[in-house]
Design brief:
With about 290 residues, this protein is mostly helical. Helix content is about 70%, strand content about 0%. The protein contains 14 helices and 2 strands, in the order αβααααααβααααααα. α2 packs antiparallel against α5, α6 packs antiparallel against α7 and α8 packs across α11.
Length: about 290
C-alpha cells in the first residue's frame, strides 16, 4: 500500500471510527432537551423581535434563504414546534423525523435571534449538532453495537466544538494584527470593569496577573485542536479544563457558553451512563425482596 493510500485510510478511519450507538443516544437526549432550555433562557429574544421587525438585519444564511422576520405569532408557533419535536427526539420517538423538525426549526429560531445586529459564536457547535444527529437514524440507550455513522456524527460535533475556540484565537489575531497585541492588551481589564463580579474585581489591582491570564487563554485556544487526538485520562483532563474555564467565566463575568459546554459531551463515554443506571436498578431490585 502506498503512503498516500495509507494516509487516506488513516484519515477515513479517524472520521468514521465506529462508535457506540448508546453514546449518540445519550448525546441526542442532552442536545434536544437543551434546545428547549436554550429557547427559554438563552436565546430568548425571538418573540420580542416580532414587535420591532423594522430592525431586522438578516445574516448571510438568512439572506440567501430570503427568510423574513417571524413576527410575534410566528415566533410563538415556532417555539412550540421545536419544543414538541425536541421532546420526541429526546425520548427516542420518531427519531429521524423529530430530529429534522427540531434541528431545522432551531436553525430558523437562531437565524432570527442573530438577525438583529448581535451574532454570538457560542451556538456554532450546537447548530451543527442538530443538523448531523438525525443522520444517525435509530439509536437507543440499550444498544450494544457500534456504527461508523455514529463515529462520523460525533467527530463532526467534536471538530466544531474545537473550532469555536480555535476560531476565536484566529479572530483575536486578525482583529489585533498579531496575537501578542491582544494578549498584552487590556481586554480583561475592560471586561472586568464592565461586568466583573466581586470574585474577580480584586484582580484590577494586579494588571500583570490579567496579562498572564490573557496569554493563558490565547495559548489554550490555539492548542485546542490537540483535544481531538487525545484519549483516556488526558482527554478527560482537557475537557474538564475547558468546562472549568467556562464555569470560572460565568462566576467572574456572567458569561456561560452553555451551548458549547453541552457539545463537549461528544468527547465523553456517555454509553456508560445507561449501563451504570441498569446496574443500579438491578442491585435495588435484588435487594428489595430481602
Amino acid at each position: 500500500m502506498s503512503a498516500l493510500a495509507r494516509a487516506g485510510s488513516a484519515v477515513s478511519g479517524w472520521w468514521f471510527k465506529p462508535m457506540p450507538l448508546a453514546r449518540v443516544a445519550v448525546l441526542r437526549t442532552l442536545v434536544y432537551l437543551f434546545l428547549i432550555f436554550d429557547m427559554l433562557y438563552v436565546a430568548t429574544d425571538v418573540v420580542p423581535h416580532g414587535y420591532v421587525p423594522e430592525l431586522y438585519q438578516p445574516t448571510l444564511v438568512a439572506r440567501i434563504l430570503q427568510l423574513p422576520t417571524l413576527g410575534v405569532t410566528g415566533g410563538q408557533v415556532l417555539f412550540w414546534v421545536v419544543t414538541l419535536a425536541s421532546v420526541c427526539a429526546a425520548i427516542g420517538a420518531f427519531q429521524r423525523a423529530a430530529g429534522w423538525v427540531a434541528g431545522l426549526g432551531f436553525w430558523l429560531w437562531m437565524l432570527n435571534s442573530q438577525g438583529f445586529s448581535y451574532v454570538s459564536h457560542d451556538h456554532m457547535a450546537l447548530m451543527v449538532a442538530v443538523l448531523v444527529l438525525p443522520t444517525v437514524g435509530v439509536a437507543r440507550f440499550g444498544d450494544t453495537g457500534s456504527s461508523e455513522r455514529v463515529g462520523w456524527v460525533l467527530r463532526v460535533v467534536q471538530v466544531f466544538t474545537i473550532l469555536t475556540y480555535f476560531g476565536s484565537a484566529i479572530s483575536k489575531w486578525t482583529r489585533s494584527g498579531t496575537p501578542w497585541v491582544w494578549a498584552n492588551g487590556a481586554v480583561f481589564v475592560w471586561a472586568i470593569m464592565r461586568r466583573g463580579s466581586d470574585l474577580i474585581r480584586w484582580t484590577l489591582d494586579f494588571p500583570w496577573l490579567l496579562i498572564v491570564g490573557q496569554w493563558a487563554l490565547l495559548l489554550l485556544e490555539f492548542c485546542s485542536p490537540v483535544v481531538l487526538f487525545l484519549r483516556g485520562k488526558w482527554l478527560y483532563a482537557l475537557v474538564a479544563t475547558f468546562v472549568l474555564f467556562h464555569l470560572a467565566t460565568y462566576l467572574a463575568l456572567g458569561i456561560h457558553f452553555l451551548p458549547t459546554v453541552v457539545c463537549w459531551a461528544a468527547f465523553l463515554p456517555l454509553e456508560r451512563i445507561p449501563a451504570w443506571l441498569r446496574r443500579r436498578i438491578g442491585r435495588r431490585s435484588e435487594v428489595a425482596p430481602a
